[in-house]
């Protein structure tokens, strides 16, 4: 039991950090995929210029 | 075509709007490396929207991040050569070498049309190659032509507009101080109220608008009315070529496509067939997925049991068995249904039927102030609202585009499917006729199909008032879907679902598990140890009671109980309520959350089914409300999910596409309100009907 609680705390912290990062990238920055689905079929407006498959389109 | 040349996977459909993004690929032929850019499908280079302008800018070399293309490959449909060569005549004005690929030669031959590509090449000076893209026929010759064209230093000549028109173009270009190339100066003159005019008048002022009006008036007086003169000139040139190179039968033969379209585009029969096809798809999703879902369920249970045996009692064991395996596994069970859904979508797209669906829906959409062009993004939203929202970029009218964006999340996306499948599987299969699950699933999707136009109508009459746009679309010939294309689409969708489950859903489930696990003790000691002791002593009832008490005292349990008065009109208890709340970032989370709450594997129903469905049935049967009205509660949950915007990513894309925080906020508020009202109405009406039948 002694090792279990710290382990869970670490895992939980990493999960929260991951969710925070994904939320930040979804709302405030560009990323290679447009959402958390990971399908890669759409992009957010300013992708990495070196990304091989996407060219950004202007916003209306 | 793009896939065939570059080997890159790319979603391809035969209705407008689906290639709204540009993609790159690479291939090498005869020692020459080619970078291939696939531009949005269009019939002309007269840009009417920023989306089309990007393609024009790229062809003119005006995109700062892209160099100008060395060769333009113009793909024309052999069965509609006259219309498609119109675009080719505009490409010839760019001054870049053009290669023409005459595609679907087989379709033209089936219509009795013979095309002499060598004669077209001789008359135009272009390299013209017949191909059949779906079977990769003619690709070697096409690549040879591209290699040869890449060595050309200039483009070929096309039709020349009358001298008065070119004189006015030169005057306008001088007026703009040479700011724009001749091609754009020509588009400025020819495209009345087009994007080029809007952009340049905005930049140079109303004096330019006046000059344009005067120029067009002078041309009209000289018999060169704008915009008609462009179409006359180009089509005259095209017809002079095709008259020498194309032979058609005197009477166009009736093709299989024509015969099918008589029925499939019929106002009544076509609509009924569309509804029947949709029902068939949903029924097949249920029937076809069952065996595989059972296998995954068994695998998840086996894994959870293994972890429980291998690890000592404590939070890590619970995290792995209940949070990770129970939570994520509960979502992964629905992988077969997702894959089957996307398989059907791929078949309907590739065969050409989706374009007919857009045509059928045009009449309904126009009554709601939109056009069939809005139906295409809405149909895309059945897979995922995000590409559907991005596909609205082809809608020129900004109000229509915004209305479509705001209602796209109402279409039941694939993320809602696990929720529907879980509750329908739990409460609307055993004891019901074979068609009930399919009809219920169909009904859930129809909620979106009905709600979206109605909300759009309300928006077009209030916040977004405007006329109904015209919709012009070419119906492509029906084609047999390719097995490879369908399988690729299913694999892509399946992998995306698994990847999401293994990342975002996994992280969410860990957080939800923690909120339902802690605090893990009270004055009597650790709940987990006391539950295990009671089970070992054979007192399962007391163990279950303590387990339920533990969940109630958890962080999420307390939040849920505090909010229970809000959930009560929907027929929900705190457990369903917190599961719904936890699913606001991503819908699928409710399935995993219910899996943790109902402790899948711990609760058996009468048939000994240790699945989440069985767990829910068993738990609800002992509840005074859920036990008496299980179908009404299940339907209320499904209706809530059908109408609620529980996808942060969708709201983020709405923010980007509208460049405003107000519209995603508006979307969230109106959809949550609509979902709540819909859920309450469903439960209350269901409760009344149940009482009537039981009374």
Describe the SSE topology:
The complex is a heterodimer of chains A (60) and B (695).
Chain A: H1 4-28
Chain B: H1 2-6, E1 23-29, E2 32-38, H2 50-60, E3 72-77, H3 81-91, E4 98-103, H4 105-110, E5 114-115, H5 117-124, E6 127-130, H6 139-150, H7 163-175, H8 182-190, H9 195-204, H10 206-221, H11 228-245, E7 246-247, H12 256-264, H13 269-310, H14 315-332, H15 335-351, H16 353-367, H17 372-380, H18 385-390, H19 398-407, H20 417-427, H21 436-461, H22 483-517, E8 521-522, E9 525-526, H23 527-536, H24 540-553, H25 555-562, H26 564-567, H27 574-582, H28 589-597, H29 612-621, H30 630-643, H31 648-658, H32 662-694
Parallel strand pairs in B: 3-4, 4-6
Antiparallel strand pairs in B: 1-2, 5-7, 8-9
Strand order, sheet with most strands of chain B: 3-4-6
Cα-to-Cα separation, first versus last residue of chain A: 56 Å
The largest contact between protein chains, plus residue counts on each side, is: A-B, 37 and 56 residues
Content of β-strand of chain A: under 5%
Domain module tally of chain A: 1
The number of helices of chain A is 1
**Count of strand segments of chain A:** 0
The succession of helices and strands of chain A, N to C, reads: H
Give the CA-based shape of chain B: elongated
| Domain tally of chain B | 4
The average pLDDT value of chain B, as a whole number, equals 86
């Amino acid at each position: 039991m002694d090792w279990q609680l710290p382990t869970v705390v670490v895992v939980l912290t990493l999960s929260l950090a991951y969710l925070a990062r994904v939320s930040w990238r979804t709302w405030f920055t560009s990323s290679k995929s447009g959402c958390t689905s990971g399908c890669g079929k759409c992009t957010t407006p300013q992708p990495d210029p070196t990304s091989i498959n996407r060219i950004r389109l202007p916003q209306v | 075509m793009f896939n065939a040349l570059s080997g890159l996977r790319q979603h391809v459909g035969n209705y407008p709007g689906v290639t709204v993004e540009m993609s790159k690929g690479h291939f090498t032929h005869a020692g020459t490396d080619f970078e291939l850019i696939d531009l949005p499908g269009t019939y002309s280079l007269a840009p009417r929207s920023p989306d089309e302008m990007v393609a024009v800018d790229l062809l003119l070399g005006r995109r700062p991040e892209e160099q100008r293309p060395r060769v333009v490959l113009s793909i024309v449909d052999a069965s509609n050569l006259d219309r498609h060569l119109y675009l080719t005549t505009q490409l010839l004005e760019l001054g870049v070498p053009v290669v023409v690929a005459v595609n679907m030669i087989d379709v033209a031959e089936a219509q009795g049309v013979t095309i002499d590509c060598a004669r077209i090449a001789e008359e135009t000076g272009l390299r013209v190659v017949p191909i059949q893209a779906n079977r990769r026929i003619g690709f070697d010759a096409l690549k040879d032509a591209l290699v040869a064209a890449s060595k050309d230093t200039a483009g070929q000549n096309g039709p020349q507009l009358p001298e008065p028109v070119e004189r006015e173009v030169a005057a306008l270009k001088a007026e703009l101080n040479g700011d724009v190339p001749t091609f754009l100066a020509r588009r400025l003159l020819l495209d009345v109220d087009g994007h080029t005019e809007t952009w340049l008048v905005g930049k140079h002022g109303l004096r330019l608008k006046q000059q344009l009006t005067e120029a067009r008036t002078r041309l009209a007086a000289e018999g060169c009315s704008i915009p008609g003169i462009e179409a006359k000139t180009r089509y005259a040139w095209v017809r002079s070529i095709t008259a020498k190179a194309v032979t058609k039968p005197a009477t166009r033969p009736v093709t299989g496509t024509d015969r099918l379209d008589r029925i499939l585009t019929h106002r009544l029969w076509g609509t009924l067939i569309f509804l029947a096809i949709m029902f068939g798809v949903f029924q097949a999703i249920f029937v076809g997925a069952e065996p595989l879902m059972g296998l995954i369920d068994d695998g998840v249970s086996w894994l959870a049991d293994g972890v429980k045996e291998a690890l000592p009692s404590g939070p890590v064991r619970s995290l792995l068995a209940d949070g990770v395996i129970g939570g994520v596994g509960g979502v992964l069970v629905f992988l077969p249904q997702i894959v089957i859904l996307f398989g059907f979508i791929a078949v309907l797209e590739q065969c050409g039927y989706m374009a007919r669906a857009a045509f059928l829906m045009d009449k309904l959409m126009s009554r709601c102030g939109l056009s069939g062009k809005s139906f295409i993004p809405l149909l895309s939203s059945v897979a995922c609202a995000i590409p559907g929202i991005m596909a609205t970029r082809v809608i020129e009218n900004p109000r229509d585009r915004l209305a479509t964006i705001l209602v796209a999340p109402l279409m039941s996306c694939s993320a809602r499917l696990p929720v529907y499948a879980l509750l329908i599987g739990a409460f609307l299969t055993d004891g019901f006729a074979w068609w009930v699950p399919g009809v219920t699933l169909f009904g859930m999707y129809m909620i979106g199909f009905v709600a979206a136009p109605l909300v759009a109508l309300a928006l077009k009459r209030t916040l977004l008032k405007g006329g109904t746009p015209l919709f012009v679309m070419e119906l492509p010939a029906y084609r047999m879907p390719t097995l490879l294309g369908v399988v690729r689409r299913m694999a892509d969708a399946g992998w995306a679902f698994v990847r999401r489950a293994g990342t975002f859903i996994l992280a969410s489930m860990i957080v939800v598990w923690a909120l339902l696990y802690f605090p893990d003790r009270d004055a009597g000691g650790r709940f987990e140890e006391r539950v295990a002791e009671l089970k070992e002593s054979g007192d399962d009832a007391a163990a279950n009671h303590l387990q339920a008490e533990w969940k109630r005292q958890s962080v999420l349990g307390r939040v849920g109980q505090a909010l229970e008065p809000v959930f009560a009109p929907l027929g929900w208890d705190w457990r369903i309520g917190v599961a719904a709340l936890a699913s606001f970032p991503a819908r699928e989370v409710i399935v995993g959350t219910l899996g943790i709450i109902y402790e899948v594997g711990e609760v058996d129903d009468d048939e000994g089914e240790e699945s989440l469905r069985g767990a829910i049935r068993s738990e609800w049967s002992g509840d005074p409300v859920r036990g008496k009205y299980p179908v009404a509660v299940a339907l209320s949950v499904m209706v809530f999910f059908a109408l609620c915007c529980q996808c942060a990513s969708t709201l983020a894309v709405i923010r980007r596409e509208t460049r405003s925080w107000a519209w995603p906020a508006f979307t969230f508020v109106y959809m949550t309100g609509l979902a709540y009202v819909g859920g309450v109405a469903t439960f209350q009406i269901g409760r009344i009907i149940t009482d009537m039948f039981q009374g």
